[in-house]
Amino acid sequence: MTEKSPPRRKNGAGVSSLAERVLELLASGQATTRTEIAGLLGAAPSTISLTVSQLLEHGLVAEEGTVSSAGGRPRKVLRLGGSDGFAVAAELGGRHAHVGVVLPGGGLTDVSTVPFPTADGPEAALPGLAETLAELADRHGRRLLRGVGLCLPGPVDVEPGLVTLPARMPGWNRFPVRAWMEERFSVPVAIENDANCMAVGEHSVRPPEQRQSIMVKAGSGIGAGVIADGRLYRGGTGAAGEITHVRVEAGHDTPCSCGNTGCLETVASGAALVRILRERGLEVTSTEDVVRLATDADPEATRAVRQAGRYLGQVLAANVNFFNPDAVYLGGILSTLEPFVAAVRSQLYEGCHPLVTKHLVIERTSLGADAGLVGAGQFALQRALTQALKKVADESGTR
Predict the structure, then answer these.
(1) What is the pLDDT of residues 220-244, one digit of tens each?
(2) How far apart are CA 391 and CA 185, in angstroms?
(3) Which of 1-10, 77-86, 200-209 has the lowest mean pLDDT?
(4) Cα 27 to Cα 102: distance, rounded to the nearest angstrom
(5) 3-state SS, residue 122
(6) CA distance readout (Å), 79 to 50, 82, 259, 315
(7) Is 53 in a helix, a strand, or coil?
(8) pLDDT digit string (tens) for 180-195?
(9) Cα 254 to the center of its chain, rounded Å
(10) DSSP H helical segments within the chain, as ranges?
(11) Distance in angstroms (rounded) separating the CA atoms of residues 370 and 40
(12) Structural contact between residues 265 and 308, judged by C-beta atoms closer than 8 angstroms
């Protein structure tokens, strides 16, 4: 969940990566006491107490009341310092944006959908979105705005805050989205791939024991986010979970934006289903049309949706066998279709070792369409905390 930051000065090591992990757990709502934090991080209680004390000293964490414990004295409840703050967040789609206010701990309010002309390019589309987010911030008190989070439907280079070679975002390649937004809001801005946002958002509301999971977003495109040992796993270059361009069984020659043919996205995504059904004579122009037809039990649409689920399940089976997660969560508009979900589940049980699926949870995201929004807000709040933590470390290093 935490972005990489430059190495800190030795004198500031007291507020370190462990402190970042403590802040992550408090920001996401996964823990509220020192004991819970120690258990989730596998750290000694004394180490956690020392770290929390340092965060309390700098005002990044505060104590608020107590909670009873079995067989022991009441435990002090921790919260983020200044936790009356919030983030505004947006999940960008092809023609609309899902926006809302995200609170520390994952609370979500003021959710709405507004027009967003992605295809017109960033310079045309972003000003209207910025105005909408500014109105949300003003409504809740601009002085309490801690960060802005954007959830984007394409590959994101997190360090510079750029979208890189997005298949469905013409004109967005290498545009400095984060810098553009930070200039207008003067607070930390986090931009992230939509599947990663959904993975983080969903993980924040799941049982603590589900520490390994794969989140799949199946909409106009297909992507995946990976949670490993309770944290977002990015991989060497930030491209972990990129199942979009895995080639499916031989015989498919549909060209993909990556230059190859037969990629998963060309046979199992919403955009692929639109193309397939149009070739079969159906009048469809969007993934929403596909969902509407399948919901109405149109035989061609249902058959195509079921086959798409099989293809996704085949690709996922290899990943599930390799990774052995606790759960596979399905999100995106295609996950609202039972034939699609059933086909994915069937392929996983057929293609995975019985030991891998013995306790495997396979289900739709519990947050539904809000998962990405919650994740984007969590990234924004975490980025704000990381910058505050770095400032404290820098100040400590100059003493």
Answers:
(1) 999 999 999 989 999 988 889 999 9
(2) 19
(3) 1-10
(4) 11
(5) helix
(6) 16, 9, 49, 41
(7) helix
(8) 999 999 999 999 999 9
(9) 29
(10) 17-28, 34-41, 45-57, 122-140, 177-185, 194-203, 265-268, 270-279, 287-295, 299-323, 338-351, 354-357, 371-397
(11) 25
(12) no
- Read off the tokens for 192: 């992230």
Q: Hey, what amino acid is at 219?
A: G
Q: Which two tokens stand for residue 297?
A: 């039990």
**Non-local CB neighbours of 16 within 8 Å, separated by 6+ positions:** 8, 393
Q: What is the pLDDT of residue 208?
A: 82
Q: Which residues, 6+ apart, have CB-to-CB distance to 96 below 8 Å?
A: 113, 114, 115, 116
Q: How many CA atoms lie within 13 A of 188 on its CB side?
A: 22
- The rounded distance, in Å, linking the Cα atoms of 116 and 339 is 30
3-state secondary structure of 45: helix
Please state at what angle helix 45-57 crosses helix 17-28, rounded to 10 degrees: 80
The C-alpha atoms of residue 234 and residue 196 are separated, in whole angstroms, by 9
392 pLDDT more than 80: no
pLDDT digits (tens, 9 = 90+) for 246-264: 998 755 788 888 888 999 9
Contacts of 326 (CB under 8 A, 6+ apart): 209, 210, 211, 212, 213, 359, 360, 361
Which is nearest to 308 in space by CA: 280, 334, 281?
Answer: 334
Contact 8, 19 (CB under 8 A): no
Q: Which amino acid is at 145?
A: L
Q: Which residue has the tokens 């750029």?
A: 162
Is 233 in contact with 240 (CB distance < 8 Å)? yes
Helix, strand, coil in percent for the chain, rounding step 5: 45, 20, 35
